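HOLO CASE FILE
Compound: uridine-5'-diphosphate-xylopyranose
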Amino acid sequence: MDQTHVKNSIVQSPETRRRIILFPLPFQGHSNPMFQLANILHTQGFNITIIHTQFNSPNHSTYPHFHFRSINDQFSEVDHLRSTNRDPSFYVKYLNRSCEDPFRNCLIDLLDEEPVACLISDAMFYFTQGIADDLKLVRMVLRTSSLGCAIGYGAVPFSKEGRFNLTKQDPGYEASVPEYPLIKGKDMLKIAVNPEGYGDLVANMLKQMKASSGLIWNTIKELEEPELETINQDFQVPSFTLGPFHKHFPAPSSSSIKQDRDILSWLDTQPPKSVIYTSFGSVARITDLEFQEVAYGLANTSSPFLWVVRPGMVLGFEWIESLSEKFMESVGDRGRIVKWCPQQEVLAHPATGCFWTHNGWNSTLESICEGVPMICSPCFVDQPIIARYAGDVWKIGILLEDGFERVGIAKAIERIMMDKDGEEMRKRVIRLKEKVNLSLDEGGSSNESLKSLVAYISSL
Ligand code: UDX
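Model generated. Tokens follow.
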């Protein structure tokens, strides 16, 4: 992993070092960027304390340079529902209630021990603003998704009746959403399985982001310039765009699933830009029907593929036991299926030709950083918005408009791997990659934004 991009270092004397408390949301797509941010701030001379839930507790020995405090989140009381309840807002809202008292007590103890510069909490832990206000502690926010998504969330009509139960026959299904024309009616069904619950979560998150003292984003100004202007106008608190975090500081894998690193030697044997890398992230789950469509979509092309299937990703199955022997035989050595892989290294590998992704924000950024065009299969929450950006705004990916359906999948693979169209997408994403690299250099926007953040926190 290239760490040479960290060319700026505002050196602080030990006397001026101050403590920052960080509070990650305990899901990988959120905690990874929070730990990367913690490392970035540590290299800038700050002392780091992480308050974390018992659920998905981080491995303390991976971060010997941080202090840790664990709080009792009572999550075990509802965690058993996760195999049946597909509404993510339920869990996040539960944690916002169950963490309130233990978090407050933990913070009071920490503030008794030494002065603290600020709290940085995940934006989805919106309850922390009230506690920070009570304790007269400055709260900043890390929002782990895109600027475009924050704008989209503010515009999506969560409370409008009839918007979340469209069927394919309804005219609004394929039409743009009037309040937010970037997305279509059908995207709304994916953004929220429980519109009331998710709308409530989003409203609380945005309100407490506006009440905070600053917003930290894992994005790059050059990627989302008009969106940054809108956010600056709408939120009225300073925004710091110092992404992509993983290029400042790669995070060790925080997944409980072991990475399959042998796959890198298999990639070494494949021709340049030939392999379709397929992964739908750390949370999304699909039905067996969808799973079979993905499988035959991949099998029906001539390209080699690497497919990450997390244990439990297919609803009702442990792993890949529903794939037929006929499928396995037809694929042979052309395809590899693994439980987890070193994704950033796979994307950076010369053999990787495209990324078939769910468009989680980390995966999308990682693909851009390696100049890899995408096939987009958003599953839920912010992913449909990010996928529209990839397909329609940046034009670096093909969105599978009909979802998981083998004929459409095979066509998209052919378009991206063989057609001129795909070649244009590849050129555009490589141009974006170059802009990202420049932003990290001395004088570049992310580099400058990090300096501003350090100066801002030091001035608190
Ligand atoms: C969740 C939400 O689903 C997403 O919409 C939101 O933007 C962040 O939180 P997740 O499903 O975890 O995200 O996806 P993503 O944000 O893309 O993060 C996945 C991370 O897992 C990436 O950093 C990726 O490199 C890593 N990964 C994935 C691996 O290291 N190995 C794998 O095999 C697959």
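CASE NOTES: The pocket of uridine-5'-diphosphate-xylopyranose is lined by residues 28-30, 32, 144-145, 253, 279, 281-284, 308, 340-341, 343-344, 360-363, 366, 381-383 (CB under 6 Å). Residues 1-15 have pLDDT under 50 and may be disordered.
CLOSED: yes
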